[in-house]
Amino acid sequence: MIAFNAGAELNINRLKKRIRSIVLIILMQTIVTVTLTTVVILLIKPFVEPFANQPIALIFGIGLIIGVISVAKSPSQTIAVIVETRSKGIMTDTVLGVTVLKDIVVIILFTLVINIVKSLTGTDTSLNISALVSLLVEIALSILSGAVYGYIIILYFRHIRQELLIFIVGIGFFITTLSHQFHLEFLLTCMVVGFVVENFSNYGNKFLEGVEKSSLPVYLVFFSIAGANLNLPILYSLWPIALVIVFSRLISIYLGTYSGARLAGDDPKICRLAWSGFIGQAGVSLGFAIIVSRQLPEIGNVVKNMIVAAIVINMIIGPIIFKWALQKSGETSAPTLRSSRKLKQVRDLKPKKV
Predict the structure, then answer these.
(1) 83-109 burial, b if ≥16 CB within 10 A, otherwise e?
(2) Distance CA 193, CA 299 (A)
(3) What pLDDT, on a 0 to 100 scale, did the predictor assign at position 27?
(4) What pLDDT, on a 0 to 100 scale, did the predictor assign at position 354?
(5) Distance of CA 274 to the CA centre of its chain
(6) Which one, of 311, 329, 175, lies nearest residue 235 by Cα?
(7) Contact (CB, 8 A) for 283 and 216
(8) How many CB atoms lie within 10 A of CB 339?
(9) Could you tell me the pTM of the whole model?
(10) 178, exposed or middle or buried, with CB in 10 Å at 0-12, 13-18, 19+?
(11) Domains of the chain
């Protein structure tokens, strides 16, 4: 459901106006965030008990995983803040474009990195070239199958249009089951489905509306299972590490966004403030954390708890900082608390009718 939603937000017509800036910001954010996070994880290796006795190659891979997940952003949080503040402008368009387009980059990178790290947890610590080729074939087939499923959904909207919520949940189960059977990457497949329906038909809004309506019970189960799997003693002990990850992520997002916007020749306002729109995390990042715990059974639970602790902090501070930056940029239409108070004072000064 999360991947359906993210894919459906990738509207080509809306993104192409700012495509140069969006691509450069995504590129620089990814390079800086993955590099800095990996270095930080390597530096804190002696201070994290489960990491201390692990080979350096495995810790390097875990650093890459956390780095890739740190690149991820929550489209829902970004959209919620933009809707609340009724903001419009160049910075708003840039942040929204980067947010929705970055998900597909993160999913592809995560797919590559998790398979590389899985190879490092076995007896053979070298990544076979044939395994890498097989992985690339899986990604290509995932994209192709996503396009086919997307066309099936378009046919459904064109000829049937009955029981939309049941159909979307059913097609979600169908895609996930077949992806596991044929060893495809279901997150990437589902994102391509949303992309195809949004950009190659007139049913993008209806599909997105159906996904949002049907996803509430799915999210309830998803987050409940995630919460039930949390090991509170481990989570409590990892809060200092989570703070280090959050702090390094904030620095890398700022540096990546600033350098990308400068390379694109953007307005100084975007260079200084756009980074604030990429802090919040939610569904996609949490989904990655759960996949890590399943794919790396020996050390994955520790990594998952580190990631979840960082996500909680980012989820709290992200919308607050982004709302402040939008008000600072002058792109908000909704009145601030201060302006609302001034308006009330002016109204109180008006003479009352007798």
Answers:
(1) eebebebbbbbbbbbbbbbbbbbbbbb
(2) 33
(3) 92
(4) 44
(5) 16
(6) 311
(7) no
(8) 11
(9) 0.68
(10) middle
(11) 2-349 (1.20.1530.20)
Q: Report d(CA 7, CA 196) in Å as an integer.
A: 8
Angle between helices 283-295 and 300-329 (to 10 degrees): 170
138: tokens are: 């899986």
Phi, psi angle pair for 182, to nearest 5°: -105, 15
Q: Which two tokens stand for residue 32?
A: 């800086």
Give yes or no for a contact between 96 and 78, defined as CB atoms under 8 angstroms apart: yes
SS3 for the chain is CHHHHHHHCCCHHHHHHHHHHHHHHHHHHHHHHHHHHHHHHHHHHHHCHHHHCCCHHHHHHHHHHHHHHHHCCCHHHHHHHHHHHCCCCHHHHHHHHHHHHHHHHHHHHHHHHHHHHHHHCCCCCCCCHHHHHHHHHHHHHHHHHHHHHHHHHHHHHHHCCCCHHHHHHHHHHHHHHHHHHCCCCHHHHHHHHHHHHHHCCCCHHHHHHHHHHHHHHHHHHHHHHHHHCCCHHHHHHCHHHHHHHHHHHHHHHHHHHHHHHHHCCCCHHHHHHHHHHHCCCCHHHHHHHHHHHHHCCCCHHHHHHHHHHHHHHHHHHHHHHHHHHHHHHCCCCCCCHHHHHHHHHHHHHCCCCC
- Phi/psi of residue 350, nearest 5 degrees: -65, 140
Low-confidence ranges of the chain (pLDDT < 70): 75-76, 83, 120-132, 135, 223, 226-227, 229-232, 234-235, 282-283, 297, 334-354
- Residue 58 neighbours by CB distance under 10 Å: 17
